[in-house]
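Help needed: design a sequence for this.
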């Protein structure tokens, strides 16, 4: 089937969407509430004999009306599965069991069992349907207008209508709508959405500008080189959609269980009906059919359907209390299978904020050296300048004059009558200033200073590691993860340095979103490799969607990363990743305990039912009792500690 291309312009007003979604979620509960009220009322009438005429066809109609809201969708689903060649589903089992209950006159039991099943499904869906894929968040990063030069003036148009070779204008703070080449003399751009690199990118005339970059400095003009559908940001959005479509969803346990459990139960019921003919002298077909129908009703896995999501809800609640949001029960399961963790750098293990790392002053005392530098940087709006100005130099009365910017190189001006150059090595070389070779090996961002034609020193600026970064890597290893990898859009030299400092197994920098995606896809091809990817930026969204488990930093992370991920670390602490793994494993243990309990009780009641020693109400009681014990077991997750 041809995949329909998503047109974001077709999306409706989000406020209207939210109202409709809310109404739909309420409507989902109405059938179960109605059936519950009808069932309780019917049982009360039966028990207290309040209405003498409540029997015969009136009683059948009453319980049928109670049954239809919860039973019809299941029967319909079972029928559709049979038409598709899938006979042995839980829908088929629930249908024949509850209809069998009606056939033998056990109307309340038939309704009760189907109601239990419907409520269990609601619980399960409530956990899973909070899932990712809210593509509306992509509207926040997709440029929705372009100022294009037509008929002697710049006019606002939809970026999709701009052709290759047209001239567009981008104002300060606006997103570049299409890929192109810079016509202005220079430009400074925040490219974090595309590369994840922490430092803004300053480029010169005729250099390439990518769509999705944010213009930081002055009005610029660009000549487009690609149509919107081929632009950088459009490719990222397309990769998110495609990766999400390719990603296989973890199948809910009850689905897998039903494929084994249902045929066994059905064939046992058939055997219970016909096999006694060969072994029992006074075989009566009707009696054994009745017993087989009771067996089918007892076999309904409603206790399992309830106890399993209860365990997962306990895990989801425990995770939430620890600042971790799982978008569905299936991701708690998927987290337990992860053996390879891949992470971004900026914003994931680092703070994404520039700080002075080292000050190396040659000809002046440090404080005076910094006063010269700060006087110059006060004239700049660059993020690096802000980091420099955080230096504490009390009593500074130095003032810069005649400051000019040298495109792509730095600043030139006068401070206290001295000529001061502040910038990169290219600025020094062009002004015949000799810079020590030791600066060549520095991987961090470096600001070199010369005063009156002499090299005066340098300052290095670096992104800081998060306070718990080292602890996070250690705890991830201690949780049994065999391989930790770092993939970053930042410079490879910086990525390698951070990787070495954190003792990460392997790292690679300078990657575009598609490069990250390709690296993770290659990892997934390796046998027995289950990958979790941790990121925070728009550029991480395609990888988050494609990985086995996508984990996003919820505080500093972009909306698209958060919407695309399966797990959100709400506190931005990477140390919570190991805790998420531990919570997933604890939840799985609780769920299997609940399964063992429910299945054990079910087997006992089935044996009693096959021998004619159990009625429908014993089966219902066993399910309710198991569900209650499962609740108590699941509550234990709220009291556990995962330090």
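Sure. Designed sequence:
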């Amino acid at each position: 089937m041809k995949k329909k291309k998503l047109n974001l312009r077709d999306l409706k007003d989000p406020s209207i969407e939210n109202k409709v979604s809310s109404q739909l979620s309420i409507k989902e509960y109405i059938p179960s509430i109605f059936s519950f009220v009808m069932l309780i009322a019917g049982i009360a009438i039966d028990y207290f004999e309040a209405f003498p005429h409540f029997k015969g066809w009136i009683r059948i109609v009453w319980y049928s009306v109670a049954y239809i809201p919860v039973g019809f969708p299941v029967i319909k689903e079972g029928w559709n599965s049979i038409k598709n060649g899938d006979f042995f589903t839980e829908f088929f089992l629930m249908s024949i069991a509850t209809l069998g209950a009606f056939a033998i006159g056990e109307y309340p039991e038939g309704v009760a069992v189907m109601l239990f099943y419907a409520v269990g499904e609601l619980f399960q869906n409530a956990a899973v349907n909070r899932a990712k894929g809210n593509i509306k968040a992509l509207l926040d990063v997709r440029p929705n207008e372009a100022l294009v030069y037509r008929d002697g003036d710049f006019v606002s148009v939809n970026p999709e209508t701009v052709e290759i070779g047209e001239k567009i204008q981008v104002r300060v703070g606006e997103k570049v709508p299409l890929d192109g080449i810079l016509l202005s003399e220079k430009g400074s751009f925040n490219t974090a959405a595309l590369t994840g690199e922490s430092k803004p990118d300053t480029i010169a005339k005729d250099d390439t500008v990518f769509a999705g970059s944010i213009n930081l400095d002055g009005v610029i003009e660009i000549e487009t080189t690609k149509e919107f559908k081929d632009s950088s940001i459009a490719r990222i959005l397309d990769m998110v959609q495609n990766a999400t479509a390719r990603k296989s969803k973890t199948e809910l346990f009850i689905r897998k269980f039903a494929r084994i459990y249902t045929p066994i139960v059905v064939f046992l019921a058939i055997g219970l009906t016909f096999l006694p003919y060969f072994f029992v002298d006074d075989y009566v077909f009707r009696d054994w059919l009745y017993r087989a129908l009771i067996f089918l009703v007892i076999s309904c896995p409603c206790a399992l359907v309830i106890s399993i999501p209860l365990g997962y809800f306990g895990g989801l609640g425990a995770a939430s209390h620890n600042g971790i949001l799982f978008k569905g029960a299936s991701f708690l399961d998927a987290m337990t299978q992860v053996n390879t963790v891949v992470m971004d750098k900026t914003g994931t293990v680092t703070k994404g904020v520039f700080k002075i790392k080292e000050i190396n002053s040659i000809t002046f005392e440090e404080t005076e050296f910094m006063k010269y530098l700060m006087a110059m940087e006060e004239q700049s709006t660059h993020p690096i300048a802000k980091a420099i100005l955080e230096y504490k130099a009390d009593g500074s009365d130095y003032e810069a004059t005649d400051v000019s910017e040298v495109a792509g190189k730095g600043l030139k001006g006068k401070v206290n009558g001295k000529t001061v150059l502040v910038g990169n090595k290219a600025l020094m070389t062009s002004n015949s200033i000799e810079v020590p070779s030791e600066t060549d090996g520095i991987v961090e961002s470096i600001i070199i200073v010369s005063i009156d034609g002499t090299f005066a020193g340098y300052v290095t600026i670096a992104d800081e590691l998060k306070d718990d970064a080292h602890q996070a890597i250690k705890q991830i290893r201690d949780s049994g993860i065999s391989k930790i990898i770092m993939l970053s859009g930042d410079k490879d030299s910086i990525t390698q340095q951070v990787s070495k400092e954190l003792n990460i197994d392997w790292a690679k920098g300078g990657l575009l979103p598609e490069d990250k995606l390709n690296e993770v896809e290659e990892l997934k091809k390796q046998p027995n490799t289950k990958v979790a990817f941790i990121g925070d930026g728009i550029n991480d969204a395609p990888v988050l969607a494609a990985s086995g488990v996508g984990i996003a930093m919820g505080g500093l992370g972009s909306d698209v990363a958060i919407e695309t991920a399966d797990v959100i670390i709400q506190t931005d602490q990477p140390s919570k990743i190991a805790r998420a793994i531990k919570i997933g494993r604890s939840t799985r243990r609780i769920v299997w305990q609940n399964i063992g309990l429910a299945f054990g009780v079910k087997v006992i009641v089935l044996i009693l039912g096959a021998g004619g020693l159990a009625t429908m109400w014993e089966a219902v009681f066993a399910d309710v009792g198991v569900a209650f014990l499962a609740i108590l077991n699941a509550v234990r997750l709220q009291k556990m500690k995962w330090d």
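The first strand starts at residue 146 and ends at 150.
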